[in-house]
Amino acid sequence: MNPDMILLRFGEFTVKGKNRDKFDKRITEQVRKAVAGYARAEIVRAYGRIYITLNGEPYEEMAVKLKSIFGIASFSPILRTTSELEAISGAALAVMQALPKQPETFKVSVRRVDKGFPHDSQEMNHLVGGHVLRELPGLKVNVREPEVELRVEIQPEGTYVFSSVVPGAGGYPYGTNGKAMLLLSGGIDSPVAGYLAMRQGLELEAVHYHSYPFTSEKATEKVIDLVRRLAHFTGSSIKLHLVSFTDIQTAIAQCNHNSLIITLMRRSMLRIAEQLAEQREAHGLVTGDSLGQVASQTLGSMNVIGRTTVLPLLRPLVTMDKNEIIRIARQIGTFETSILPYEDCCTLFVPKNPTTNPNLNIVENAEAGILNLQEMIRQAVATVETMNITPEIQSAVESAGQDDWF
Ligand code: ATP
Ligand code: MG
Fold first, then answer.
1. Which of 29, 144, 175, 288 is most exposed, with minimal Cβ within 10 Å?
2. Is 10 part of any domain?
3. Domain residues for 153?
C-alpha cells in the first residue's frame, strides 16, 4: 500500500527570524526538484508545514531523494482520511497492518488540532486504540515504551495517520550559510568533510591539486567522480577547480628540508585556495584534517600550516576517529571511489620522517629559500582549470527504501 502523502519536518532554522524566509525558499526549491520527475505528485503547504501529496507516485523512490536534502529533519509517510471516527479508525488499522513486522506493543497518540472535532484527544486515544486492539489480537498497549507509536493528527483540512518518522539528513538547506572552498584530495576524509560542511548550509566549490605528469588522469577522474557524488546533495552542481601543483611540489621537494615537505606543501595549497576564495567570494576553507591522524594533522602542524591564511579554516572532521569518518563515507557513497588506488600529489614525495611539530621560523625560512614560490603560487591560481560538475542520475543514498512505512 502506497501512502497518500509525506509530511516533511524541518530543523531549528524554521524559527530563526530573519533567515527564515531564505531557508524556507531554498528548501521548497529543493523539494520541488526532488518531486519534479513525478507528474502526479504535488507539494502542499499548510500551516507552516510542507506535505507532498503522492497521488499514486511511489513513496520509496521519493524517500530516497528526500533523505539527501539538507534541512529536512525527518519525514513521515501518512494516510489521509476525512475527519470522521470510522474513517480514522480504519486508517489507523491500515497503518498498523502495513508495518513490515507486526509489533507486540503500541500506543495511540491523537492530536486534535481541529477543536470542532467532537471527541477530545484522550477519548480518541481510547476509541482508535480500542478498534485496533479488537482487530489485531495479541497486540498490547504499552504507554511508556511502545514498539510503535501510532499518531493521529486531526487537522481542519482532514486527518493524518502515521507511525514512522524517518530521519532526514538534518542540518540547513544547501547554500544558506555562506560559501567556502573545499580542499578535496582523492582520499576518504575530504569528501566527508565536504558533505558535513554542505549539510551545515555551506555552499562549496572544490579545489584539487594535481601534479601532472606525476599524478595520472585517473586520479583527476576519481576526484571528478567524488565531486559528482557530493553534487547530488546540492540539488544543482558544484564547481571544481583543478590546480597544477607540479612546479611548486618539485621546488619544495628539492629544497633540502625533507621532513618539512608536507608542511610546506600544505601551506602552499592553502595560499592558493585562499586566493581562489577571494576570486570566488568565498569566506572560508574546508579541509579533511582530523586531529592526530597523520604528521601534518597534529595540533603543532595545524598551527604552522594554518598560519598561512586569514580565512576561517573549517575542519569538520577534527575530532572524529577514522571509523566514524569511514561510516559516513560509506553512507554518502564516496568510500568506494576514495579507496581506488591512484596516486595523489601528496603521496608522491612523502618523506620518511615527516615532522609532527614544525617550527614556524624554520618553515618560513625554508619558504623564503624557495626561488619564485610566490610567483609559482600566482601562476597556479592564474592557470586554474574550472569545471562545473552536475550530480549523477543514480542516487548516492541507498538505504531509504528499507525504512518502515507509516
Ligand atoms: P584525505 O583523505 O582527505 O586525503 P588525509 O587523511 O589523506 O585526508 P592528507 O592527505 O594529509 O590527509 O590531507 C589533509 C587535507 O589536505 C585533506 O583532507 C584535504 O582537505 C587537503 N588535501 C590534501 N591533498 C590534497 C589535494 N591533492 N588536493 C586538494 N586538497 C588536498
Ligand atoms: Mg590524502
1. 144
2. yes
3. 5-169
